[in-house]
Write a structure and sequence with these properties.
The chain is α/β, with parallel strands linked by helices. The chain has two domains: 55-295, Type I PLP-dependent aspartate aminotransferase-like (Major domain) (Aspartate Aminotransferase, domain 2, 3-Layer(aba) Sandwich); 297-364 and 383-395, Aspartate Aminotransferase, domain 1 (Alpha-Beta Complex). The chain has helices at residues 43-46, 55-67, 78-89, 102-120, 139-144, 169-173, 199-211, 281-295, 299-321, 342-351, 374-394; strands spanning 22-26, 29-32, 37-40, 95-99, 126-130, 163-164, 180-185, 188-189, 195-196, 215-219, 243-246, 257-261, 326-329, 332-336, 354-355, 357-360, 363-366. Strands 4-12-11-10-7-5-6 form a seven-stranded mixed β-sheet, sandwiched between helices. Strands 1-2-3-15 form a four-stranded mixed β-sheet. The protein starts with 21 loop residues before the first strand and ends with a helix. The relative contact order is 0.16. Bound molecules: pyridoxal-5'-phosphate. The site of pyridoxal-5'-phosphate (PLP) has 15 residues, from helix 4.
Length: 395
């Protein structure tokens, strides 16, 4: 079928998409309906940690779908308990509530913090978040986000999310009042362009929130489950947050996310939180397969080795062409091109069969599968360099 034969206009037009229809994926590769192959360094937006259609996920789906797809969130089911047990066993948290998207997990975190404030802090409800943060696309999570493009949309916003500046502890301290209940942030701001919260800042934030009796919420929807080279992003700073949210990589490509919390902040009463598909066996069975693969010996060493290979390659490329900074952690990496040419580089790369993402006009972000190979990394570096060269020559 040609692109024109598809009923593309039946879909709401919510973003600009190239006229390509993907029909198959395997590892770091995608194929379109005309049989063209693409090297995928987007991976569903940092979602497919194990690449496209890994056997452990297709088997978990096949096995579980033949056994039990959904009971009811009002009953226990085996896969959800087993996955919650894995998350708890390998983190500083004791309780898990599964959701279907990252935004829904963050909504849950906001609700949990507000409930805790209503019980323990005299109704305090404000959650300090950060400029350029991204927490999702529901009304409350858009309000919590600091994305400039969200500012004018869907007014009035949900109140109670004053914005501080990342890596500036004084800017947080200035916003604390009797109404404050929590501080919420991404250990690395992904959508903002891979801006790392420094370990010192995270440690300072933990000290400050503890001293002032506030909860610390880490949105690890992009950084969790191995992306940064440790299982959770907060581990780099050695801190113990009160609440964490997960998404993206947790399901390895299927819709699965989670609100995770320390026992002492779990104050939901029956009826406060729930949802039809939450913790359904089919998705949580996949989550356990993803966790087991991520926890396998040597897996995170590979993430770090590939991260170093990409970073070294991009730094060399940057030096050769007078570009800007390369930053990130593990396999969440960005290169600043120094000029607003990222969109053109993305288009040129796609023409050459490489999928890249430009979260900002001057920035390319790489979020490959965590099991990407050295050969695939080198192929990406070669194509990227060719495309940068061509775009710079034309500019
Ligand atoms: C992707 C993302 C979200 C939103 O997750 P959805 O599953 O798209 O709702 C929230 N926070 C961060 C840090 C993200 O990267």
């Amino acid at each position: 079928m040609n692109f024109a034969d598809y009923p593309a206009r039946a879909l709401m037009d919510i973003t600009s998409r190239p006229p390509i229809v993907f029909v198959r994926g395997e590892g770091s590769w995608l194929w379109d309906n005309e049989g063209r192959r693409y090297l995928d360094f987007i991976q569903g937006w940092a979602v497919n940690g194990l690449g496209h259609s890994p056997r452990c996920i297709t088997e978990a789906l096949a096995d579980q779908s033949a056994r039990l797809i959904t009971a009811s969130p009002a009953f226990y089911n085996e896969p959800s308990m087993l996955l919650a047990g894995r998350i708890v066993a390998h983190s500083v948290f004791q309780r898990v509530f599964f959701t279907n998207s990252g935004a829904e997990a963050n909504e849950g975190a906001i609700k949990l913090a507000r409930k805790w404030g209503s019980i323990h802090k005299d109704g305090a409800f404000e959650i300090i978040t950060f400029d350029n943060a991204f927490h999702g696309r529901t009304l409350a999570t858009m309000s919590a986000s600091g994305k400039p493009a969200f500012r004018a949309l869907f007014e009035p916003k949900v109140p109670g999310f004053p914005k501080a500046t990342l890596n500036d502890l004084a800017s947080v301290e200035r916003l604390i009042t009797d109404r404050t209940v929590a501080v919420m942030l991404e250990p690395i701001q992904g959508e903002a362009g891979v801006v790392v919260a420094t370990d010192d800042f995270l440690r300072g934030l933990r000290e400050l929130t503890r001293a002032r009796g506030l909860l610390l919420i880490v949105d690890e929807i992009q950084t969790g489950v191995g992306r940064t080279g440790k299982l959770w992003g907060y581990e780099h700073a050695g801190i113990t947050p009160d609440i964490m949210t997960l998404g993206k990589m947790l399901g390895g490509g299927v819709p699965l996310a989670a609100l995770v919390a320390r026992e002492e902040v779990c104050c939901f009463e029956h009826g406060d939180q729930g949802g039809t598909f939450n913790g359904n066996p089919l998705m949580t069975a996949v989550g356990s397969a993803v966790m087991d693969a991520t926890l396998a010996p040597g897996f995170l060493d590979h993430v770090n080795a590939m991260g170093e290979r990409i970073t070294a390659g991009l730094r060399a490329l940057s030096a050769r062409h007078g570009l800007g900074e390369v930053r990130g952690r593990g396999l969440l990496i960005a290169i600043d091109l120094g000029q607003d040419i990222a969109g053109k580089v993305v288009d040129a790369a796609r023409d050459e069969g490489l999928l890249l993402n430009a979260p900002r006009p001057n920035l390319i972000r790489l979020m490959p599968a965590l099991n990407v190979t050295a050969e695939e990394v080198d192929a990406m570096l070669q194509i990227t360099e060719r495309c940068v060269q061509r775009v710079l020559a034309a500019a």
